[in-house]
Design a protein that fits this description.
Elements lengths: L5 E4 L5 H14 L14 H10 L7 H20 L3 E5 L4 H14 L4 E6 L2 H14 L4 E6 L15 E5 L9 H14 L5 E7 L4 H7 L6 H17 L8 E8 L4 E8 L3 E5 L4 E5 L4 E8 L3 H10 L3 E7 L5 E7 L1
Parallel strand pairs: 1-4, 2-3, 2-5, 3-4, 5-6
Antiparallel strand pairs: 6-13, 7-8, 8-11, 9-10, 12-13
Helix pairs in contact: 2-8, 3-4
The protein binds N,N,N-trimethyl-histidine.
């Protein structure tokens, strides 16, 4: 028989609903309009993202997997981790590569997945519990920008933030995030960070504007989320997917462009939103990095460099930092 993993819940049931309302109001009354990328990930959005990770143009997942495969033993040796904390633990396959390396080294006892979605967390925690019977799995339902002080597990811990999701934060938010991670860690504990690297714009744009149109559907899905959760009446098919490389900020920006003038009603927040023909709504920033930039930001937050690894084509980096 399987033992249910322990799950701590730090979000009230209506936390996500309130946050979505507040974000939708702030973003859709702003000039230019924006929506935060975390709202892509309802069940359909999460499935579309899984499809993205298998697209020929979307290299980051494969590149990071290559690094994890090659380096998880080394990560175990360098850190001697007793606990692995994974922030935004969606990608169970990559997590397993890390768990395997750490377990084979013999020090790891506890896995702490943290996610805002309770259902995703329960599924992930149950699957890991089943496949790693000797591992203590202690899930946390929480927001990684708000609930880091509640991390369980025996030291030394490694906090893994993979996939390049750090790129979704704006530079100031990133600084705050690195500082709060450093503050919750004891001196000597670790952060393992995945960052996508700056490369030629054609490769970057193709990764966010694939020929099969999966990323376009993923982008438009945020409007479906607003239609369902807030009773909005977005005509989803009247918005076109746009992916642009912002060379000054070194980030990819995804937009949704209104193909015609539209008035959208969002009854749950009592808001009417007008779009001009061609007006663009910003839905995601995905920043790309250079080694020196990552080093400067982590150094500023008080971390010491532990290791820097890239894939065989230098597209993506995995780096290790000690608090
Ligand atoms: C999950 C945030 C790492 O920015 O590459 C993929 C999300 N957006 N295609 C990324 C995403 C469009 C992805 N992250």
């Amino acid at each position: 028989t399987l033992i249910d993993p322990e799950i701590d819940i730090h979000l009230t049931p209506d936390y996500a609903a309130r946050a979505l309302r507040a974000d939708a109001r702030a973003g859709l009354t702003a000039e230019p309009k924006w929506l935060a990328p975390k709202w892509f990930y309802d069940a359909r959005g999460s499935e579309l993202f899984e499809q993205i990770t298998r697209l020929p143009e979307y290299y980051p997942t494969r590149a990071e997997r290559e690094i994890l495969k090659a380096r998880s033993r080394e990560i175990a040796e360098l850190t001697g981790a007793h606990t692995l904390v994974e922030l935004g633990s969606g990608s169970s396959e990559k997590t397993r590569l890390l768990l395997d390396g750490l377990r084979d080294h013999g020090t790891l006892t506890t896995f702490v997945p943290l996610d805002v979605s309770e259902s995703a967390l329960r599924d992930a925690a149950a699957a890991i519990t089943a496949d790693y019977p000797s591992m203590v799995v202690h899930g946390v339902v929480g927001d990684f920008t708000a609930h880091l002080d509640k991390l369980p597990g025996e030291a030394p811990r490694v906090v893994a933030f993979l996939g390049g999701t750090i790129g979704n934060l704006l530079p100031d938010e990133r600084g705050d995030f690195f500082e709060s991670v450093r503050e919750v860690l004891e001196p000597g504990e670790w952060l393992l960070l995945g960052t996508d690297l700056v490369k030629d714009p054609a490769t970057l744009v193709a990764a966010y504007d694939d020929s099969a149109g999966v990323t376009a559907e993923f982008n438009r899905n945020v409007l479906r989320v607003l239609n369902r959760q807030l009773g909005a009446d977005f005509d989803v098919d009247a918005f076109s997917h746009v992916a642009i490389w912002d060379a000054d900020n070194e980030w990819i920006e995804m937009h949704l462009r209104a193909d015609r003038a539209m008035r959208v009603l969002i009854p749950e927040i009592r808001l009417e939103v007008n779009f001009a023909e061609g007006e663009e709504l910003s839905t995601e920033v995905s920043a790309k990095f250079h080694r020196h930039g990552v080093e400067a930001e982590l150094d500023k937050a008080g971390f010491t460099s532990g290791a820097w690894w890239t894939d065989s084509q230098d597209r993506f980096a995995l780096s290790l930092w000690q608090a």
